Amino acid sequence: MLPENLLDPSLVLNTSTALDELTLEIVPEKILEALRALKAQKFERFVSVTAVDRYPMEPRFEVVYHMQSVARNLRVRLKCRVTGDNPKIASATVVYAAANWYEREAFDLFGIDFEGHPNLTRIMMPDFWQGHPLRRDYPVHGHKYDYKSE
Amino acid sequence: MSHTITAEPEEKQSSHTRRMTLNMGPQHPSTHGVLRVVLELDGESIFKATPDIGFLHTGIEKQCEALNWHQVITLTDRVDYLANLSNNLCYSLAVEKLLQMEIPPKAQYLRVLLAELTRINSHLVWLGTHALDIGAMTVFFLCFREREDILRLFEMFSGQRLMTSYIRIGGLALEPPRGWEKRVKTFIDGLPSKIDEYESLLNTNPIWLKRTKGVGKISVEEMLEIGLTGPCIRGAGIPFDARKMTPYSSYEKFQFEVPTSTDNDVYARYECRVREMRESAKIVQQAMAGMPEGPVQADAPKAVLPERERMKTQMESLIYHFKIVTEGISVPVGEVFQVVESPRGELGYYVVSDGTAKPLRVHMRTPSFGNLQGLPNMIESRGIADSIAIMGSLDFVLGDCDR
C-alpha cells in the first residue's frame, strides 16, 4: 500500500512495515532533508513529534515524527535515535510551523534540545522546574514540591 | 507554562505610540478552563497573542507508564473530559491492534453508537458555551437540557456520567443494560427537532451573525501548516475526517456525510458542528437498526477479564481473572499510531510496547493542543471581542491540551 521508496536511500537507515504502518529510521543529522523531501511529496501535515526513552539502552532516545499526506491519504513515521548524553537534533520548525509546540513539549518532558527552534522553553512544567518528567529515570511518585518558596 | 513575559524589541514598539500588555486568563470565563493568553494590544486590536498552556498538566502520559494496560483506560477518560468515550476508544483500538485482536461486531457497533453520542454531547456543550460567550443565553439552557439526557444514557450504560471507562481493551466493560434501545431511540428521534430549535435561535439572530460571519479567517494552507483539524479544517472546505479516510470500528458500514463549508470563519465552524450533530444522530439510528447479535467482548481469555458469573463458577476463568488482575496482560513488542475522529478533531494515540505488563510509552496527539497552536494566527490584528468568538470556535478543552 505504501510506497517504500519515499526517501533517498542515503537518508534512511532502516525501513520497516509493521501493523500496516510504515516506519523509516532516518540518519539524525539528515532529518531536515528527510522532512523537506516528504513535504515535497505532498506530506502537508505534520501530525506530531515526540520521544521514547529507551533507558538504559544507548542511544537512549528515539525522536518520533508522525507525518500525514491528506491528498494521498498516507501516513508515515520517521524515527531518529539520539544519545542520552546531551541529546539534540535539528528543529523541524523551519520546515513545518506545526512542530513548534510539539518540540517544546519534547524538550520540556524529555530534555531533547531542538537546535534552531525559535522559542525552546518549557511548555507544560513551570519555568523553574528541575529535570524532565517523562524520562524513565525520573520517579513517578515522591517528588517534593514546595509551593511556599516559589 | 511561563512566568516571565519578554517584551517586544524596542524598534518594533517605537512605530506605535503606546502598546498595552493584557493578561487574559488563566481564570477568564471565555477561555473554558485554564488557558492564559498574553495579549499585546494596540488600542482595541490585538497586535500579538501568546498562548500560555500547562496549567492543567497532570502528567497523564507519565502515569500511563506506571499502570498496567487495562488500568490506563481510566486515565484516558480524564484526558478529554467532554469526549471520554472517544479517548477510551482510541486507546483500546491501539492496544487491540498491537494484540491483533478481533472485536465482535456487536461491540464495534455499540462503540460507534457511543462515540457518536459523545460527539453530540461535546458539540452540545460547545454550542451552549460558545453562544453564551457571544451573548445568546437561552441556547445554553437548551443545550444543557439535551446534554443531561446523554449523560443519563452514559450513566445507564456504565454507571458513570462523565468518567465512563466503558470501552475496554477487547470490547466493552459490561453488557448494555436492559431497555437501553428504547431510551436511546427516544432521545435520538427527538434530537433533530431540538437542533432546529437551536438554529431558530441563532441563524437569524443579527448579533450572532455579526459576531461570527467573516471572523477568524485564515487560509487553508496556513491551517494545514499549523496543524488544525476537526471542524476547524472542515469549515475551510477540506473533508478531512478519520472516520472516512481510515475507517475504524466498522465506520465503513455506515452512511453519513462529512459536513464542510467554504467560508472558513467562526460561522462556518458553527455550521459544520451543527450539521455534524445531525449526521451523528443518523449514525446512531443506523447502528440501532443494524445492531448485530452476539457477545460484546472478544474471545481472548488471556487479555480480557472473564465475565463475573463465569469467574465465580469456573476454575479456568478464575485463574485468568487472577492472572490479569495481578500480573496484567502482556502485549507484543511493537508500536502503533491509532487515529480516531474525536469531536474536536484528530485524536491520535501513539502506543509503544516492550512486551511487559505496562506500556513503555503512551503519547497522545490531542486535537486541542494542535488547534490551540493556531490561535495567534487567527486573533492577531483583530479586536478583543473577536478573540472571544474565535477561541470559542476552536472548541478546545484544556485537559485535552495539557494532559
CATH superfamily of the domain at 12-115 in chain A: NADH:ubiquinone oxidoreductase Nqo5 subunit
- Order of helix and strand elements from N to C terminus of chain B: HEEEHHHHHEEHHHHHHHHEEEHHHH
Biggest sheet of chain B: strands side by side, in what order? 1-2-3
CATH class of the domain at 12-115 in chain A: Alpha Beta
DSSP helix fraction of chain B: 40-55%
Please tell me the overall pLDDT of chain A.
Answer: 86
Largest sheet of chain A: 5 strands, mixed
How many DSSP H or I helices of chain B? 18
At CATH level 2, the architecture of the domain at 12-115 in chain A is 2-Layer Sandwich
Per DSSP E runs of 2 or more residues, the count of β-strands of chain A stands at: 7
Uncertain segments of chain B are: none
Q: What fraction, in percent, of the residue positions of chain A are helical? A: 10-25%
CATH superfamily of chain B: Cytochrome-c3 Hydrogenase, chain B
Order of strands, main sheet of chain A, comes to: 1-2-5-4-3
Notable features of this structure?
heterodimer, A: 150 residues, alpha/beta, Beta Polymerase, domain 2, 5-stranded mixed sheet, two-stranded parallel sheet, 15% helix, B: 403 residues, mainly alpha, Cytochrome-c3 Hydrogenase, chain B, 3-stranded antiparallel sheet, 18 helices, globular
